[in-house]
Design a protein that fits this description.
- This protein has four helices and nine strands.
- By secondary structure, the chain is of the alpha+beta class.
- The strands form two sheets. It has a five-stranded mixed β-sheet, with helices on both faces. A four-stranded antiparallel β-sheet has the order 1-2-3-4.
- The longest helix has 9 residues.
- The radius of gyration is 18 Å and the shape is globular.
Length: about 160
């Protein structure tokens, strides 16, 4: 957490986005898609700013004495009722995924991290849409599966050559 002080008169901010309930929310959607028990999120606040959802501790969520650029970790975005979890979020919470997760080999990982598509064999626990990609049981990021290929969703500035 960083606090940057702006010179001038400090005004208290009491407006902040409302906390959304977990049931029927993006948390519930994420838990169903990836087979994760949504109880791991019960001690967190989840909130929306524009089209992006964030997750933070309740203390960070209620921090309103100073204007902040962003509070919390990006949870993800909804695209046409499909969740695209953020890569950083997946690296923390993706280990518990029981479905829509794919374990890569080393050569697949290198292609994936460079932004390439990877052909994967269909599996019953993987359905089309965004999936969590792992390597040696560690969550790496997110890709989009179309039934035959997995397209990297790693942010361009984080890709390797």
């Amino acid at each position: 957490i960083a606090q940057i002080t702006k010179r001038g008169i400090a005004k208290h901010r009491f407006d902040h986005p409302g906390k959304i309930s977990h049931e029927g929310s993006i948390v519930d959607h994420f838990a169903r898609r990836f087979g994760i028990d949504n109880q791991i999120f019960k001690y967190y606040s989840v909130f929306q700013e524009q089209d992006t959802y964030y997750i933070a501790s309740p203390e960070v969520f209620t921090f309103s004495t100073k204007k902040t650029i962003r509070k919390g970790l990006e949870f993800g975005k909804l695209y046409d009722n499909e969740i695209k979890p953020d890569n950083d979020f997946v690296q923390i919470f993706g280990r518990q995924a029981k479905r829509n997760s794919y374990e890569m080999t080393e050569w697949q990982l290198k292609k994936f991290l460079s932004g390439d598509k990877i052909e994967i064999n269909p599996a019953p626990e993987i359905i089309e849409g965004f999936i969590i990609v792992t390597y040696k049981n560690l969550p790496i990021g997110v890709g989009r599966y179309n039934g035959n290929e997995l397209k990297s969703a790693i942010k361009r500035e984080r890709r390797i050559n």
